[in-house]
Design brief:
It comes from Yanghanlia caeni. GO terms for molecular function: 3-hydroxyisobutyrate dehydrogenase activity. Pathway: Amino-acid degradation; L-valine degradation. By secondary structure, the chain is an alpha/beta fold. It folds into 2 domains: 161 residues, Rossmann fold; 129 residues, N-(1-d-carboxylethyl)-l-norvaline Dehydrogenase, domain 2. It contains 12 helices and 8 strands. Helix 5 links the parallel strand 4 and strand 5. The longest helix is centred in the middle third of the chain and has 29 residues. It binds nicotinamide-adenine-dinucleotide. The site of nicotinamide-adenine-dinucleotide (NAD) has 29 residues, from helix 4, strand 6, helix 6 and helix 11. The site of nicotinamide-adenine-dinucleotide has 29 residues, from helix 4, strand 6, helix 6 and helix 11.
């Protein structure tokens, strides 16, 4: 089975590497030559273009930033759907608008190609460890075809429903993640402003009723946890602008279905302000900087 893997960024690179290590025949591609070279150095074959990788692939996996990148890659006269084999399987792992996933699935079906949306949760740590959660939308039979590959990159695989349902479930999760990272940051900043040791406070809250994923795996304050973006100057990880994109997708959906998400709207406004202050490329846990007193940064 030949696999094309398009998009070798913070998430795509370790995911492609895990498939390569599991013995699958991978051909990777990214528009960034630095990303291509980093993966080539680890033994993963790299193609000259997305088209070259996808032409004879049985499965094409993509891990791109946002809807427009996915549309650009697959749709239109120069899109990959024009060169992919009939009967091939498309697995898009990017977090994008559910509407775009549905449009892609329809366009793929019209060309005899199966497509599922399979956005992930678990961060770069989960991508490296192969313990991601896949949240899949599409036909059950197509998920079964994808399962042997997803199992090499993840530990949990959920079928959320038809095409686009994976994206809807994913933005519900990420809206909650954005809110809880802000809440966790506020609580830590308050403790530090009172002179508490942030390591001790974080451990107290982790084991108390405020315990959550940020405290377990992704503490936002530098120095509390090793190997998290906060302790690497907020490099790598999940970018502020990607979180802002997901919170924006959630708010677009809120308007469409007339849901009520006041904290989701506030989280969107706070991440927007943080991005506009020049922090868009930092990891999203850097939102704690909005809450820290200058003498504590
Ligand atoms: P990233 O910016 O690190 O990587 C995206 C890569 O796509 C880049 O290397 C970029 O050069 C490449 N790219 C863009 N357009 C391309 C094209 N047309 N052809 C080939 N390559 C192209 O982003 P990431 O953190 O890896 O996130 C990817 C997706 O996963 C996003 O949708 C994000 O929301 C989602 N996600 C990220 C995390 C995380 O912790 N980083 C967690 C869960 C989900």
């Amino acid at each position: 089975m030949k696999i094309a893997f398009i998009g070798l960024g913070n998430m795509g690179a370790p995911m492609a590497l895990n498939l390569h290590k599991a013995g699958f025949s991978i051909s990777g591609y990214d528009i960034s030559s630095a990303s291509c070279e980093a993966l080539r150095a680890q033994g993963v074959p790299i193609a000259d273009s997305a088209g070259a990788a996808a032409t004879d692939a049985d499965v094409v996996i993509s891990m791109l930033p946002a809807s427009q990148h996915v549309e650009q890659l697959y749709l239109g006269e120069t899109g990959l759907l024009q060169v992919m084999k009939q009967g091939a399987l498309l697995i898009d792992c990017s977090t994008i608008a559910a509407e775009t996933s549905r449009k892609l699935a329809q366009a793929a079906e019209a060309r005899g190609i199966s497509a599922i949306d399979a956005p992930v949760s678990g961060g770069t740590g989960g991508a490296i460890a192969g313990t991601l959660t896949f949240i899949v939308g599409g036909k059950a039979a197509d998920l079964e075809r994808a399962r042997p590959l997803l199992e090499k990159m993840g530990a949990n695989i959920f079928h959320a429903g038809d095409a686009g349902a994976g994206q809807t479930a994913k933005i519900c999760n990420n809206m909650l993640l954005g809110i809880l990272m802000i809440g966790t940051s506020e609580a830590i900043a308050l403790g530090v402003a009172n002179g508490l040791d942030p390591k001790v406070l974080s451990e107290i809250m982790r084991r108390s009723s405020g315990g959550n994923w940020a405290l377990e795996k992704y503490n936002p304050l530098p120095g509390v946890m090793e190997n998290v973006p906060a302790s690497k100057n907020y490099a790598g990880g999940f970018g502020v602008d990607l979180m802002l994109k997901d919170l924006g997708l959630a708010q677009e959906n809120v308007r469409a279905v007339k849901a009520v998400t006041p904290l989701g709207a506030l989280a969107h406004a706070l991440y927007s302000a943080h991005s506009q202050a020049g922090n868009g490329a930092l990891d999203f846990s850097s939102i704690i900087r909005l809450m820290q007193r200058p003498e504590n940064t």
